[in-house]
Amino acid sequence: MSVQRATFTRPLIAVAMVAVSTYCAFAQRAPVPTRVRGTIESVNGDTMQVKSRSGEDVRLHIASDVNVSGITRISLADIKPGSFIGATTVPGPDGSQNAVEVHVFPESMRGTGEGSRPWDLKPNSSMTNATVAESVVGNDGHTLLVKYKDGEKKVFVADNTPVVTLELAPVVWTAPRWI
User: Which of 7, 17, 102, 145 could form a disulfide with 134 if both were Cys (CB 3.0 to 4.6 A apart)?
Assistant: First the structure.
């Protein structure tokens, strides 16, 4: 009887050890980043209090090596072939991608988030970070051909679409600020 017990116990212990180590590995996973859109209400030490767009109060921990960027409005004409941009788009009625906003990244940020993915600015919006391959001026805006690692897109940017560039901002907080 003790031979059968030993034969059964060893595999059971092995399975239990695998299960416990798997649980520990999942418990130690890094947290998934979450975007928060809203107004910075206050900063106290390493904590930032934000009023989200939905009205929720969100408390965020600020890392000691945080980089803060500001935005400056620029002209649509400032977007040239070779510019690395982030275009938030929504599908148009004809299937085209219409820009809601365009961010022109500084050269130091080239390649950041390259690709195209769903975005949370508006329903059905997407974010495409890519290099401008071609810019065609039309009567009511520009059509940009942007290329990224896994593909390309044509993006229509109307004359009234906000176009901004990012600048390193000094870490001096005044409330409220839009993020």
Answer: 145
Beta bridge partners of 84: 131
pLDDT of amino acid 117:
94
Pick from 15, 45, 66: which residue ends a domain? 66
Same domain as 105, residue 56: no
- Beta-strand relationship, 97-104 and 151-158: parallel
Structural domain harbouring 43? 31-66
Higher pLDDT, 56 or 1: 56
Structural element, H or E, at residue 48: strand 47-52
pLDDT of 47 higher than 70? yes
Based on the fold, state whether residues 60 and 79 are members of the same structural domain.
no
SS3 for 99-160, per residue?
Answer: EEEEEECCHHHCCCCCEEEECCCCCCCEEEEEEEEEEEECCCEEEEEEEECCEEEEEEEECC
Least confident of 16-20, 55-59, 74-78, 152-156: 16-20
